[in-house]
Specification:
This protein is 68% helix and 1% strand. With 380 residues, the chain is mostly helical. Strands 1-2 form a two-stranded antiparallel ribbon.
Length: 380
């Protein structure tokens, strides 16, 4: 009985620890800090991922997400949804355009380059995407100017997509799924062209496109914590105080569920819950910045401006469509619960399938996973 109580206290203590120290372990892009990686290595085998802790987290977080959605449905009776394209849209547009301009200038000034890059290289689109080409810096500077002029929106969007295409050419399309939100930003900017805003119906849903692209990116990197825990563990090895002595693999799994759940809320939240999720996610990134420095500060500017846009706009047609027709609080909770489990299942399946396809496309053998030494060393 004493052993059971001791284990229970340890599990609760671990959960509290993870929530308290989440900013240090729920980095959306651990690839910026874990060192150069070989994206062709296989992910963890499914039987390793589906541990008792994984199922316990799945049950707990799915229940929390469903309960939160039910409560959100009750609050919706008193907090009406805002309409996309209203006066908030003007403020959102300023935030996105100015934020992108600042980020492009930071890239041009090489203010966010991974530590293992040599001094002659600069960032292309993200800290680990480095290149020596001088014309890339000129394109970044041009983007910073064009994005501030609505009539040049199409050119600015084309510039962003060009930088994204360099990443695809360098790392492959699979690797760049982490950064789908850059495609969302390019779409947002392009649809801000005055002529398109007036005549294209899709332009009225620009914030929906932004939120969807960021939610997908963050859920994808959360799944990555389950399938490639060694990348997060490599970061924790350099910041061991974050774990307070708890097993690295356990901390990584719970952090992945926290990140996935908050990102999922961006897809299903109503006027209140979607804003709460945006604030909590933004808080995670901001609070981690002192620990991880300039790379983290600059690298997360695009993420933060999208979260600010979501906070300002609130519920859009995206959340209404993904949540489904359920209207009552219990019905909403049940529908969200099913979607939560289904989304996690689909994304994990896609990750395994697309990873194997990307390795095969590069002409490399698709080999079964062998557990990394870091996982074996720090297994609970």
């Amino acid at each position: 009985m004493t052993d059971v109580l001791s284990r229970a206290r340890r599990r609760y203590g671990l959960a509290i620890l993870v929530f308290a120290l989440l900013p240090g372990i729920a980095q959306a892009h651990v690839k910026w800090f874990c060192g150069p990686i070989d994206a062709s290595i296989p992910p963890a085998a499914l039987q390793q991922v589906l541990s008792p802790l994984f199922f316990a987290c799945l049950a707990g977080f799915a229940t929390l997400v469903a309960s939160g959605s039910s409560f959100d449905a009750l609050l919706a009776r008193y907090v009406p949804a805002s309409r996309e394209g209203d006066r908030r849209g003007v403020v959102v547009d300023i935030v996105i355009r100015v934020g992108l301009a600042v980020y492009a200038v930071c890239l041009w000034r090489d203010l966010a380059v991974v530590l293992w890059a040599d001094d002659a290289t600069g960032s292309v689109l993200t800290p680990e995407m480095v290149d020596r080409a001088h014309w890339i810096g000129l394109l970044q500077l041009a983007i910073a100017g064009m994005v501030l002029v609505p009539r040049l929106s199409l050119l600015a969007a084309f510039g962003l997509l060009t930088l994204f295409a360099i990443g695809v050419a360098r790392f492959g399309a699979f690797y760049m799924i982490d950064y789908t939100f850059f495609v969302g930003l390019a779409a947002y900017v392009a649809l801000g062209q005055p002529a398109l805003r007036r005549h294209l119906r899709l332009a009225s849903g620009r914030v929906s496109i932004l939120t969807a692209s960021l939610s997908l990116s963050l859920m994808w990197t959360a799944v990555e914590k389950f399938l490639f825990p060694q990348w997060t563990i490599a970061v924790l090895l350099h910041h061991p105080a974050i774990t307070a002595g708890f097993p690295f693999t356990s901390v990584t799994t719970i952090a992945g569920f926290v990140e996935f759940s908050l990102s999922f809320y961006l897809l299903v939240g109503r006027a209140v819950l979607v804003r709460v999720a945006a604030v909590l996610l933004a808080g995670v990134f901001v609070m981690a910045m002192p620990e991880f420095g300039m790379v983290d500060i600059v690298g997360h500017i695009p993420v933060l401006i999208i979260l600010v846009a979501t906070l300002l706009q609130g519920e859009t047609r995206l959340q209404q469509a993904f949540r489904g027709p359920a209207s009552g609080s219990w019905a909403t909770g049940g529908a969200v619960l099913v979607r939560y489990v289904a989304t996690l299942t689909v994304l994990m399946s896609l990750y395994y399938g697309l990873h194997a396809a990307s390795v095969w496309a590069e002409g490399k053998p698709v080999t079964p996973n062998q557990q990394s030494p870091a996982i074996i060393r720090h297994r609970s």
